[in-house]
Amino acid sequence: MKSKSKNCIGVLLSVLLAVSLTGCGGGGPTAPTDIPSTPTGVTASPGDGSVSISWNAVSGATSYNIYWSTTSGVTKTNGTKITDATSPYSHTGLTNGTTYYYIATTVNSSGESVESAQVSAKPTAPTALTEVGSYESSEGLDAVYVVGTKAIIGFVNIDESGFEILDISDPTTPILLVHKSLIFNSFGTLYNVDPHSFYVVDNTLLYIATNYGLYVSNIQDPTHPTEPQLIYSDNFWAVAVVGGLAYATGGAPSGLAVIDLNSGSRIGFYDPPCCSNHGVYVKGNYAYVADGPDGGLQIIDITDPYHPIGVGQYLGRYTFDVSVKDSYAYVATSGYFQIINVSNPTAPTLVKEIGVWRDAGSIFISGNRAFVSSQELNMFDITNPTSPELLGNYQSLYAGSSVSGNTTHVVVVDYYKMRVFEYF
Q: How far apart are CA 369 and CA 392, in angstroms?
């Protein structure tokens, strides 16, 4: 009897338990969402003052966290947390030369994963320019202008002068597209025309400042440029073109000539203090002229192009070239790279002067980089114009070499060689 009672009680309890579970949801409780897997494939790549962190996507993740430290062994407990990061994540504002350590985690509604494997990277500013390609010429090269992936170089020789256009879309292997002679015909006598500088408008019209005048050629098809046409005859050193007007330096008498490109006539002229004008840069209502041995930097108001007026100057050194960005003029001079505050054009002030090897003959600005060419190529960080930082240097160039470039490469003509440098 005792055994039978126990069996009955057991059956009753089993029935009650089954009824109870059925009333609480039929299929039993819902399983919780699993905590996501740890990120894999985590990498850290250094940049200039930055590190880029990447990882593989994790199924079920709603977000990712990064933890970092300047000490190895970073964890969720001791690391500095960056929430809601997306891959790749750029960690900026870092100190070059310092190693940064990182881990990544995955997050969803159930929580946060364990840490990934640690990775590290050391932000580094470029310490040298890297020559990645070159082009050998049988001619003497003396000018360069880069537009997009095309480099225009001027050549001068006893027998022939003119320009060449090269494709630098693959900077390691520049390809010659055309070799074009420049000839001046004076009553049946032919003279070689020496190109001093170039200026391109709309990737189409190439303006050439030469010892015989200002020329123009259509280079829309760079393999078949049109025959250069003389616009205005004079001995010009440099040219800038804005709004249908050319601002050319040099000439006789030496000065800044304003030329109407439609009529081919000189409509304005300004005679700076010195006799040997070189580079010119036009920005807004002002033309900035590198005025040779005694004139320094000249600032000319061109609001009325028929009557240019000199409004300011900074004297002191033989000046070869100038470029302007924001409120600062960057000037290549005899043995120095100058940065001049021109926010008040009537009273330019020197904010920094840095010595370079031999005469700085050419200057090119790209973003926060300034490239100064002499018998060496110097690259400066001009993020803070009052405190520029030398980032890279390449020596053993020909004196007075010319420099131009685009957003990733600079090109220098070095007498018989065109050199292509990568920078960042």
A: 10
Question: Nearest to residue 139, comparing CAs of 169, 109, 108, 160?
Answer: 160
Q: What is the pLDDT of residues 195-204, one digit of tens each?
A: 999 999 999 9
Model pLDDT, residue 276: 65
Side chain identity, residue 45: S
Q: Label the pairing between strands 119-121 and 150-156.
A: unpaired
pTM of the full predicted structure?
0.71
Q: Which residues pair with 218 in a beta bridge?
A: 205
Q: Please enumerate in sequence order all residues whose Cβ is within 8 A of that of 117, keeping only pairs 6 or more positions apart, or say none.
A: 42, 103
Distance from C-alpha of 106 to C-alpha of 154, rounded to nearest angstrom: 58
Residue 129: Cβ within 10 Å count: 22
pLDDT at 9: 43
Do the beta carbons of residue 420 and residue 377 sit within 8 Å? no
Identify the structural domains of the chain with CATH numbers, from first to last: 43-121 (2.60.40.10), 130-422 (2.130.10.10)
Out of 44-48, 81-85, 339-343, 406-410, pick the least confident: 44-48
Per-residue pLDDT tens digits for 377-420:
999 999 999 999 888 888 767 655 799 999 999 999 988 899 99
Distance CA 60, CA 33 (A): 9
